[in-house]
Write a structure and sequence with these properties.
The complex is a heterodimer of chains A (192) and B (99).
Chain A (H helix, E strand, L loop, with lengths): L10 H9 L3 H11 L3 H20 L7 H19 L12 H9 L3 H9 L5 H9 L3 H12 L4 H7 L4 H27 L6
Chain B lengths: L6 H8 L5 H11 L3 H18 L11 H13 L17 H6 L1
Helix pairs in contact in B: 1-3
The chains are: A mainly alpha (192), B mainly alpha (99).
């Protein structure tokens, strides 16, 4: 790896060194936002192409996560346009209702639910599909890829309050879906 | 019993976005309020499950090479294509018909 501060480092070397640590997160997020692996790779390429000039100008490291994921979001919007569909939104239930429904039951059942093994990725992927695109993208950024709220706000071209509200609703919806699955597979029946 | 905390406050605590005083007050409330404690545990459980999701997607080994080539293509000097040689003028079918 070339030291980006070296006068011998080319702009391409510096841009690639900046992009390389973020690229896996871009791909993982794109993979969960698209239908096929080829589509995910194409969306990531689209995002990098649209960010090339900025990357070659050696931007501050603090801006990389937010701006590159922002480019990814715009590339996803173009992908959905080509697929002939608009951005899908989630259902109307708010986080309070979602959690109330999922937590309806006694303490024992809830403890069993928390102890249930739901490490398998397929169940999580199914739960993520219950989310609209914006909620899914946000929860992937913050909870899977560990972006900060501020970086996620840049990525979604919105403000912190929107991020807080969307993230809460998204997490509540994921919990609701996973809790439902856990009940059906582990015999937990919290509803009286 | 103190009023229930909003879900946003529980989320802020989960994500480390509460100041020390608010965090202390929330912890004191959670110690006595089962409803808020269950909501907090639900959000924490969900975040833990999601944190393991990155392991479920394999990044293609060719990705780095592809992205490097995209950056190199952008920085390459432009290829100047010479203009095509002028084509001889051709008569329109009407002109040919008139002779």
């Amino acid at each position: 790896m070339v030291d980006p501060s070296s006068p011998f480092a080319t702009d391409v070397d510096a841009a690639f060194d900046a992009l390389r640590p973020v690229a896996p997160a871009l791909y993982r997020t794109a993979r969960r936002m698209t239908r096929r692996a080829d589509d995910a790779a194409a969306v990531v390429r689209d995002a990098v192409i649209s960010s090339r000039t900025w990357l070659l100008a050696r931007p501050p490291a603090a801006e990389l996560n937010g701006r590159l994921h922002g480019a990814l979001w715009l590339a996803l919007e173009r992908y959905w346009q080509r697929e002939g569909r608009g951005e899908r939104e989630s259902g109307p239930e708010g986080p309070d209702d979602l959690l109330a429904q999922a937590l309806d039951g006694d303490e024992t059942d809830f403890e069993r639910l928390l102890m249930s093994r739901l490490d398998a990725s397929p169940e999580l992927d199914i739960a993520l599909r219950h989310l609209g695109e914006r909620e899914r993208f946000l929860v992937l950024l913050v909870d899977v890829e560990n972006l900060t709220y501020e970086e996620a706000a840049v990525a979604l071209h919105t403000d912190l309050e929107v991020v807080q509200g969307l993230l809460l609703t998204a997490r509540a919806r994921v919990f609701h879906a996973l809790a439902d699955f856990a009940r059906r597979t582990s015999g937990v029946h919290p509803r009286a | 019993m103190a009023a229930h905390h909003s879900l946003l406050a529980l989320q802020d605590a989960l994500d480390g976005r509460l100041d020390a005083a608010d965090r202390t007050a929330l912890d004191a409330h959670l110690a006595t309020c089962e409803a808020c404690r269950r909501q907090s545990q639900a959000l924490r459980w969900t975040r833990l499950r999601l944190a393991g999701a990155s392991a479920g997607v394999d990044v293609p080994p060719t990705l780095d090479g592809e992205l490097r080539r995209l950056l190199e293509t952008a920085s390459a000097p432009p290829v100047i294509t010479p203009p095509p040689p002028p084509q001889p003028a051709t008569k329109s079918w009407w002109s040919r018909l008139r002779g």
